[in-house]
From TrEMBL:
Originating species: Novosphingobium guangzhouense
Role noted for this protein: Part of the MsrPQ system that repairs oxidized periplasmic proteins containing methionine sulfoxide residues (Met-O), using respiratory chain electrons. Thus protects these proteins from oxidative-stress damage caused by reactive species of oxygen and chlorine generated by the host defense mechanisms. MsrPQ is essential for the maintenance of envelope integrity under bleach stress, rescuing a wide series of structurally unrelated periplasmic proteins from methionine oxidation.
Protein name (database record): Protein-methionine-sulfoxide reductase heme-binding subunit MsrQ
TM ranges: 12-29, 49-67, 79-97, 117-137, 149-166, 172-192
Main location: membrane
A GO biological-process term: protein repair
UniProt KW keywords: Cell membrane, Electron transport, Flavoprotein, FMN, Heme, Iron, Membrane, Metal-binding, Transmembrane, Transmembrane helix, Transport
Family designation: Belongs to the MsrQ family.
GO CC list: plasma membrane
SUBUNIT field: Heterodimer of a catalytic subunit (MsrP) and a heme-binding subunit (MsrQ).
Length: 203
C-alpha cells in the first residue's frame, strides 16, 4: 500500500523537479530578481539547465541499465524531453530577446562565433531525438536504429560542453566540471557496455 502511494507520487514529483528551474525563472521575473541584465541571465540559466538535463539523461540511462535501477527508465524520455525544452527555450531567448529575430544578424553570428555554430549544430541534432522519442514513432523504427540514433545524445552533450568552453572568457572551472561529468558518464557507459553479457547477467 505504502509502495503504491509512493509510486503514485513519483511521477508528479519528477514533473515538478524538472519544471522547477523554469518556474524559478518566472518567479524571479515576477519579483524583479533577474539581475541588471535579465536577457543574459535567463539565456545563461536556460543553457546551463539544458546541459544539466542532458547529463541527467545520460546518468539515468546508465543507472537504469547497469546499476539495477530499471524503474528509472520510466523517466528517461521525460528527462530527455525536458533537456530539449530547456535548450529550445535557450535558443528562443537568443533569437528573440537577444537578437530580436534579426535573421541577418543571427546568420552572421552563427558564421562568426564558433560557440554559436556548435550550439546550433547540437540543437539540430537534438531535434530527431525529440521527434523519435514519441512512442508511435519509436514503434515504427527498428530498435537497433533507434538505439544508434539515441546514442547521439553523448555527442550532443560533448558539443554542449565544447560550446560552454568556447564561450567563457577566463574562468573555465564550470565548463571543466561539466566536461568531467560528461567524460565520467561516457567512460562508465563504455566500460559497462564492454563487460561481457554473461558477466552482467551473473551480477
Ligand atoms: C545542446 C545545445 C546547447 C547547450 C547544452 C547550451 C548550453 C549553454 C551553457 C551551459 C551556457 C553558459 C551558461 C553560463 O554561462 O552559465 C550557454 C550560453 C550561451 N549559449 Fe548555449 N547551449 C546550447 C545551444 C545554444 C544555441 C543553439 C545557441 C544559439 C544559437 C546558444 C547560444 C548561447 C549564448 C549566446 C550563450 C551566452 C553567451 C554569453 O553570455 O557570452 N546556445 N549555453
Amino acid at each position: 500500500m505504502a509502495r503504491a502511494n509512493a509510486a503514485r507520487l513519483e511521477s508528479p514529483a519528477v514533473w515538478a523537479l524538472c519544471a522547477a528551474p523554469l518556474l524559478l525563472i518566472f518567479y524571479w521575473g515576477f519579483t524583479s530578481q533577474l539581475t541588471a541584465n535579465p536577457v543574459e541571465f535567463v539565456l545563461r540559466d536556460l543553457g546551463l539547465w539544458g546541459l544539466r538535463f542532458l547529463c541527467l539523461t545520460l546518468a539515468v540511462t546508465l543507472l537504469a541499465k547497469y546499476a539495477n535501477l530499471p524503474w528509472l527508465m520510466r523517466y528517461r524520455r521525460r528527462i530527455g524531453l525536458w533537456a530539449f525544452a530547456y535548450v529550445a527555450l535557450h535558443l528562443t531567448v537568443y533569437l528573440g530577446a537577444a537578437h530580436e529575430f534579426d535573421w541577418a544578424e543571427i546568420g552572421a553570428d552563427i558564421a562568426k562565433r564558433p560557440y554559436i555554430t556548435i550550439g546550433m549544430a547540437a540543437f539540430a541534432l537534438l531535434i530527431p531525438l525529440a521527434v523519435t522519442s514519441a512512442a508511435a514513432v519509436r514503434r515504427r523504427m527498428k530498435p537497433r536504429s533507434w538505439r544508434a540514433l539515441h546514442r547521439l545524445v553523448y555527442v550532443i552533450a560533448i558539443m554542449g560542453v565544447a560550446h560552454y568552453f568556447l564561450l567563457v572568457k577566463a574562468d573555465i572551472r564550470s565548463p571543466l566540471l561539466y566536461a568531467a561529468i560528461v567524460a565520467t558518464l561516457l567512460g562508465a557507459r563504455l566500460v559497462a557496455s564492454a563487460r561481457p553479457r554473461k558477466a552482467r547477467a551473473a551480477g
